[in-house]
Design a protein that fits this description.
174 residues; alpha+beta; nine-stranded mixed β-sheet; 9 strands; 26% helix
Length: 174
């Protein structure tokens, strides 16, 4: 069964400097504005949880999100040397394409489908919605993020998309 049977909504890149990378995307492609989340942690919610390979220790990671036309771009910078899905793929100082993201209205079914394909479950977390990351580097050259689809996450993505569609080029890093 084909499990990646819905549109990719996000392309994610691991970078050494999130602000420099964001400005390169702005100048080269017109992506933006970028919304930054500095030193992200999964805490503060009754459902909040994070597990990397069964361990609850999180890496110190920052994100920046923007749209480039219809596609969401995510930039990721890890600030420490803890094991993570990023350090699994990239050695210190390296950067590049990391994962594709899909939205799932049937999260548990899709998670089970990916597992049945023999993909390696690397991360499970809850951050506005259920999220899992599968290591599919051997199969397609990157990780796959399956992101639960709900009204809250759709509202965030809609706000970012509308900011892109009406953006005049000012204030590219927010």
């Amino acid at each position: 069964m084909q499990v990646l049977n819905r549109p990719v909504f996000q392309y994610a890149y691991y970078v050494n400097d999130i602000d420099t990378a964001a400005m390169n995307w702005v100048r080269l492609t017109g992506a933006g504005p970028f919304f930054r989340v500095a030193h992200h942690t999964v805490t503060g919610d009754a459902r909040g949880y994070f597990r990397y390979r069964g361990d609850t220790t999180e890496s110190d990671v920052s994100y920046a999100f923007a749209y480039c036309g219809p596609v969401q771009i995510q930039l990721i910078q890890q600030h420490d040397d803890k094991p993570s899905i990023y350090t699994e793929m990239f050695d210190k100082g390296q950067e590049g394409f990391h994962h594709v993201g899909i939205l799932s209205a049937q999260f548990d079914r899709d998670k089970a489908d990916f597992l049945s394909q023999g993909l390696d479950l690397a991360v499970e977390m809850w951050a506005v919605a259920d999220v899992v990351y599968f290591n599919a580097v051997k199969q397609i050259g990157c990780f796959v993020e399956v992101h639960g689809d709900n009204a809250d996450i759709r509202a965030v993505f809609k706000r970012w998309k509308e900011a892109h569609d009406t953006w005049d080029g000012s204030d590219p890093l927010r």
